[in-house]
Amino acid sequence: MTNGTRSDFQEMFHKGQLTIGISELSRMTGVSPRQLRYWQKKGYIIPKNQDEPGRARIYNMRMVIKAAAMSNLLQTGYTLKAAAAQVDERMQPAQTMYHVLFDRYQGFEVADNGEILVDLGPFDPDPTQELYAKLVDNQAKFELKSKE
């Protein structure tokens, strides 16, 4: 049986690990650096290093996605305030899913038959049980196992 750890997942998907500078963000979104700084001043986008004055701004992938989506909405006629609100609303389900997966993921196991079991940690109603997820015919299925 092969195992993967929580730290493997965290290294791959850690919040803020993938970042870009303001120039790259400008090129990706078609929004000038000056305009991006204005968006930051208004609180619509927040650089990862906002607490480090005088340093070049860097943005995590969440802010990159938000800036790109806002840019698209502005091109369709939204105001800046409305575009930011719309993007925040649309991003909420994805943020929730990210946190559920990131916070619950404990690791994975590959069984001898090749089946991958994703360890989601203790089962809340009964902490003596571990909750596992697996794919069966491309459908998520869950099972409980007693803690060893």
UniProtKB/TrEMBL annotation:
Keywords: DNA-binding, Repressor, Transcription, Transcription regulation
Pfam family name, one: MerR_1
HTH merR-type domain sequence ranges: 19-89
Superkingdom of origin organism: Bacteria
MF terms in GO: DNA binding; DNA-binding transcription factor activity
Record keyword Calcium present: no
InterPro entries (UniProt xref): DNA-bd_dom_put_sf (IPR009061), MerR-type_HTH_dom (IPR000551), MerR_fam (IPR047057)
Keyword Oxidoreductase: no
Record-given protein name: HTH merR-type domain-containing protein
